Amino acid sequence: xxxxxxxESDPEVARGVAVLRRMFALLEAFRGSDELSLAELARxxxxxxTTAHRLVGLxxxxxxxxxxxxxxxxxxxxxxxxxxxxxxxxxxxxALPFLQDLFEATHETIHLAVLDGTDVVYLxxxxxxxxxxxxxxxxxxxxxxxxxxxxxxxxxxxxxxRTVLARPLLRVTPYTITAPNVLADELRRxxxxxxxxxxxxxxxxxxxxxxxxxxxxxxxxxxxxxxxSARMQPETLAPAVRTAALGLARVxxxxxx
Length: 257
Known about the structure:
- By secondary structure, the chain is an alpha+beta fold.
- It has two domains: about 10-80, Arc Repressor Mutant, subunit A; about 85-255, Beta-Lactamase (2-Layer Sandwich).
- The chain has nine helices and nine strands.
- The strands form two sheets. The chain has a six-stranded antiparallel sheet. A three-stranded antiparallel sheet has the order 1-3-2.
- The protein is globular.
Protein backbone atom coordinates (compact mmCIF):
# COMPACT_ATOMS: atom_id res chain seq x y z
CA UNK A 1 0.00 0.00 0.00
CA UNK A 2 1.19 3.60 -0.63
CA UNK A 3 2.79 5.12 2.46
CA UNK A 4 2.97 8.75 1.30
CA UNK A 5 6.78 8.57 1.33
CA UNK A 6 9.25 8.32 -1.51
CA UNK A 7 12.69 6.77 -1.50
CA GLU A 8 14.67 9.69 -2.91
CA SER A 9 17.88 7.70 -2.59
CA ASP A 10 16.76 5.95 -5.78
CA PRO A 11 18.13 8.14 -8.64
CA GLU A 12 15.07 7.55 -10.83
CA VAL A 13 12.68 8.46 -8.02
CA ALA A 14 14.76 11.51 -7.14
CA ARG A 15 14.60 12.74 -10.76
CA GLY A 16 10.82 12.28 -10.82
CA VAL A 17 10.41 14.14 -7.54
CA ALA A 18 12.58 16.98 -8.83
CA VAL A 19 10.43 17.31 -11.96
CA LEU A 20 7.23 17.32 -9.92
CA ARG A 21 8.57 20.02 -7.61
CA ARG A 22 9.51 22.18 -10.59
CA MET A 23 6.04 21.72 -12.10
CA PHE A 24 4.41 22.70 -8.81
CA ALA A 25 6.68 25.76 -8.65
CA LEU A 26 5.40 26.79 -12.08
CA LEU A 27 1.76 26.33 -11.02
CA GLU A 28 2.32 28.20 -7.75
CA ALA A 29 3.72 31.10 -9.77
CA PHE A 30 0.18 31.94 -10.87
CA ARG A 31 -0.92 32.98 -7.39
CA GLY A 32 -2.21 36.52 -7.75
CA SER A 33 -2.01 36.51 -11.55
CA ASP A 34 -4.31 35.23 -14.29
CA GLU A 35 -1.72 35.18 -17.08
CA LEU A 36 2.08 35.14 -17.12
CA SER A 37 4.78 35.25 -19.77
CA LEU A 38 7.39 32.51 -19.95
CA ALA A 39 10.02 34.92 -18.63
CA GLU A 40 7.83 35.81 -15.63
CA LEU A 41 7.04 32.14 -14.98
CA ALA A 42 10.76 31.38 -14.92
CA ARG A 43 11.45 34.32 -12.61
CA UNK A 44 8.68 33.50 -10.14
CA UNK A 45 9.43 29.78 -10.06
CA UNK A 46 13.18 30.27 -9.81
CA UNK A 47 13.76 27.95 -12.76
CA UNK A 48 16.14 28.48 -15.68
CA UNK A 49 14.21 29.72 -18.70
CA THR A 50 15.08 26.62 -20.74
CA THR A 51 13.77 24.34 -17.99
CA ALA A 52 10.63 26.43 -17.60
CA HIS A 53 10.05 26.34 -21.37
CA ARG A 54 10.33 22.53 -21.47
CA LEU A 55 8.02 21.96 -18.50
CA VAL A 56 5.49 24.57 -19.61
CA GLY A 57 5.28 22.80 -22.98
CA LEU A 58 4.52 19.53 -21.20
CA UNK A 59 1.86 21.17 -19.02
CA UNK A 60 0.25 22.73 -22.09
CA UNK A 61 0.19 19.35 -23.87
CA UNK A 62 -1.65 17.89 -20.85
CA UNK A 63 -4.08 20.88 -20.74
CA UNK A 64 -2.89 21.84 -17.26
CA UNK A 65 -1.83 25.17 -18.77
CA UNK A 66 -3.22 27.06 -21.76
CA UNK A 67 -1.30 29.33 -24.11
CA UNK A 68 -2.79 32.67 -25.05
CA UNK A 69 -0.56 34.56 -27.45
CA UNK A 70 2.77 34.93 -25.69
CA UNK A 71 1.30 34.31 -22.24
CA UNK A 72 0.12 31.29 -20.28
CA UNK A 73 -2.76 30.67 -17.89
CA UNK A 74 -4.09 27.77 -15.84
CA UNK A 75 -6.06 25.30 -17.95
CA UNK A 76 -9.54 23.87 -17.71
CA UNK A 77 -8.25 20.40 -16.90
CA UNK A 78 -6.73 21.73 -13.69
CA UNK A 79 -10.06 23.36 -12.83
CA UNK A 80 -11.91 20.12 -13.50
CA UNK A 81 -9.57 18.19 -11.21
CA UNK A 82 -9.90 20.83 -8.51
CA UNK A 83 -13.67 20.47 -8.56
CA UNK A 84 -13.26 16.79 -7.66
CA UNK A 85 -11.58 17.51 -4.31
CA UNK A 86 -14.01 15.87 -1.82
CA UNK A 87 -13.46 18.39 0.98
CA UNK A 88 -14.21 21.33 -1.27
CA UNK A 89 -17.15 19.73 -3.05
CA UNK A 90 -19.03 18.41 -0.02
CA UNK A 91 -18.46 21.50 2.12
CA UNK A 92 -19.34 23.89 -0.70
CA UNK A 93 -22.54 22.00 -1.55
CA UNK A 94 -23.69 22.03 2.07
CA ALA A 95 -22.78 25.70 2.52
CA LEU A 96 -24.29 27.19 -0.65
CA PRO A 97 -27.87 27.59 0.69
CA PHE A 98 -26.56 29.44 3.74
CA LEU A 99 -24.23 31.59 1.65
CA GLN A 100 -27.08 32.48 -0.69
CA ASP A 101 -29.35 33.36 2.24
CA LEU A 102 -26.67 35.66 3.64
CA PHE A 103 -26.25 37.31 0.26
CA GLU A 104 -29.99 37.89 -0.12
CA ALA A 105 -30.13 39.38 3.37
CA THR A 106 -27.13 41.68 3.00
CA HIS A 107 -26.35 42.10 -0.73
CA GLU A 108 -22.69 42.20 0.30
CA THR A 109 -19.86 39.81 -0.63
CA ILE A 110 -20.10 36.41 1.08
CA HIS A 111 -17.15 34.06 1.69
CA LEU A 112 -16.62 30.45 2.68
CA ALA A 113 -13.06 29.62 3.77
CA VAL A 114 -11.02 26.90 5.46
CA LEU A 115 -7.73 26.93 7.33
CA ASP A 116 -4.64 25.47 5.66
CA GLY A 117 -1.60 25.78 7.89
CA THR A 118 -1.35 29.45 8.80
CA ASP A 119 -3.35 30.66 5.78
CA VAL A 120 -7.00 30.65 4.84
CA VAL A 121 -8.08 29.21 1.50
CA TYR A 122 -11.30 30.56 -0.03
CA LEU A 123 -13.65 27.82 -1.27
CA UNK A 124 -16.53 30.05 -2.39
CA UNK A 125 -17.37 33.69 -2.93
CA UNK A 126 -20.77 35.16 -3.79
CA UNK A 127 -21.02 38.80 -4.83
CA UNK A 128 -23.37 40.97 -6.81
CA UNK A 129 -23.06 44.36 -8.43
CA UNK A 130 -21.74 45.81 -5.17
CA UNK A 131 -18.78 43.44 -4.91
CA UNK A 132 -15.68 44.75 -3.18
CA UNK A 133 -12.05 44.55 -4.17
CA UNK A 134 -10.68 41.98 -1.75
CA UNK A 135 -7.90 39.36 -2.01
CA UNK A 136 -10.37 36.51 -1.82
CA UNK A 137 -10.60 34.79 -5.19
CA UNK A 138 -11.94 31.24 -5.04
CA UNK A 139 -8.92 28.98 -4.54
CA UNK A 140 -6.81 31.88 -3.29
CA UNK A 141 -5.08 31.99 0.06
CA UNK A 142 -4.25 34.76 2.51
CA UNK A 143 -2.53 35.02 5.92
CA UNK A 144 -5.11 33.91 8.48
CA UNK A 145 -4.26 36.55 11.08
CA UNK A 146 -5.17 39.35 8.64
CA UNK A 147 -8.72 38.20 7.83
CA UNK A 148 -12.00 37.81 9.64
CA UNK A 149 -12.48 34.21 8.53
CA UNK A 150 -8.88 33.44 9.46
CA UNK A 151 -9.17 34.84 12.97
CA UNK A 152 -12.49 33.02 13.43
CA UNK A 153 -10.76 29.74 12.54
CA UNK A 154 -7.58 30.41 14.56
CA UNK A 155 -9.63 31.15 17.68
CA UNK A 156 -10.90 27.58 17.64
CA UNK A 157 -7.75 25.87 16.31
CA UNK A 158 -5.17 26.13 19.12
CA UNK A 159 -2.29 24.37 17.34
CA UNK A 160 -2.52 26.66 14.31
CA UNK A 161 -2.92 29.70 16.55
CA ARG A 162 0.26 28.81 18.45
CA THR A 163 2.15 28.47 15.17
CA VAL A 164 0.89 31.85 13.94
CA LEU A 165 1.70 33.58 17.23
CA ALA A 166 5.23 32.16 17.24
CA ARG A 167 6.09 33.72 13.88
CA PRO A 168 6.44 37.34 12.70
CA LEU A 169 3.01 38.63 11.71
CA LEU A 170 2.92 40.11 8.21
CA ARG A 171 1.55 43.66 8.05
CA VAL A 172 -0.86 43.67 5.09
CA THR A 173 -2.40 47.09 5.79
CA PRO A 174 -1.75 49.75 8.44
CA TYR A 175 -4.52 48.12 10.51
CA THR A 176 -3.28 44.51 10.44
CA ILE A 177 -2.58 43.16 13.92
CA THR A 178 1.16 42.44 14.06
CA ALA A 179 1.75 42.24 17.83
CA PRO A 180 1.39 38.61 19.03
CA ASN A 181 -0.01 39.59 22.44
CA VAL A 182 -2.66 41.78 20.82
CA LEU A 183 -3.64 38.99 18.41
CA ALA A 184 -3.76 36.48 21.28
CA ASP A 185 -6.16 38.75 23.17
CA GLU A 186 -8.24 39.16 20.01
CA LEU A 187 -8.49 35.38 19.52
CA ARG A 188 -9.64 34.93 23.12
CA ARG A 189 -12.39 37.50 22.57
CA UNK A 190 -13.44 35.73 19.36
CA UNK A 191 -13.55 32.35 21.13
CA UNK A 192 -15.84 33.85 23.78
CA UNK A 193 -18.12 35.72 21.35
CA UNK A 194 -18.17 33.23 18.47
CA UNK A 195 -17.69 36.02 15.94
CA UNK A 196 -14.69 37.82 14.42
CA UNK A 197 -14.22 41.20 12.77
CA UNK A 198 -11.79 42.43 10.12
CA UNK A 199 -11.61 46.20 10.25
CA UNK A 200 -9.53 47.02 7.16
CA UNK A 201 -6.87 44.52 8.26
CA UNK A 202 -6.72 42.71 4.91
CA UNK A 203 -7.82 45.45 2.50
CA UNK A 204 -7.93 49.23 2.98
CA UNK A 205 -11.48 50.51 3.08
CA UNK A 206 -13.00 47.03 3.49
CA UNK A 207 -14.45 45.45 6.63
CA UNK A 208 -16.02 42.09 7.40
CA UNK A 209 -17.69 40.00 10.06
CA UNK A 210 -17.06 36.24 10.23
CA UNK A 211 -18.12 33.22 12.26
CA UNK A 212 -16.62 29.73 12.56
CA UNK A 213 -18.47 26.58 11.52
CA UNK A 214 -17.97 24.26 14.51
CA UNK A 215 -18.66 20.56 14.18
CA UNK A 216 -18.08 19.10 17.59
CA UNK A 217 -15.04 21.02 18.78
CA UNK A 218 -13.51 21.33 15.30
CA UNK A 219 -13.62 24.55 13.26
CA UNK A 220 -14.13 23.06 9.80
CA UNK A 221 -14.75 26.35 7.98
CA UNK A 222 -15.78 29.97 8.43
CA UNK A 223 -18.37 32.22 6.79
CA UNK A 224 -18.15 35.97 6.38
CA UNK A 225 -19.91 39.05 5.04
CA UNK A 226 -17.56 41.64 3.52
CA UNK A 227 -18.18 45.16 2.30
CA UNK A 228 -16.88 48.75 2.18
CA SER A 229 -16.22 50.17 5.64
CA ALA A 230 -18.23 53.27 4.76
CA ARG A 231 -21.31 51.12 4.18
CA MET A 232 -20.79 48.10 6.43
CA GLN A 233 -22.04 47.80 9.99
CA PRO A 234 -20.31 44.56 11.01
CA GLU A 235 -21.78 44.42 14.53
CA THR A 236 -25.32 44.64 13.11
CA LEU A 237 -24.66 41.76 10.71
CA ALA A 238 -22.94 39.53 13.28
CA PRO A 239 -26.11 37.68 14.43
CA ALA A 240 -27.00 36.74 10.84
CA VAL A 241 -23.49 35.45 10.12
CA ARG A 242 -23.38 33.44 13.33
CA THR A 243 -26.83 31.97 12.66
CA ALA A 244 -25.75 30.88 9.17
CA ALA A 245 -22.58 29.28 10.58
CA LEU A 246 -24.61 27.41 13.21
CA GLY A 247 -27.05 26.20 10.56
CA LEU A 248 -24.25 24.90 8.36
CA ALA A 249 -22.62 23.23 11.38
CA ARG A 250 -25.86 21.34 12.12
CA VAL A 251 -26.09 20.13 8.50
CA UNK A 252 -22.47 18.95 8.52
CA UNK A 253 -22.85 17.26 11.93
CA UNK A 254 -25.95 15.40 10.70
CA UNK A 255 -23.99 14.21 7.68
CA UNK A 256 -21.32 12.75 9.93
CA UNK A 257 -23.79 10.94 12.17
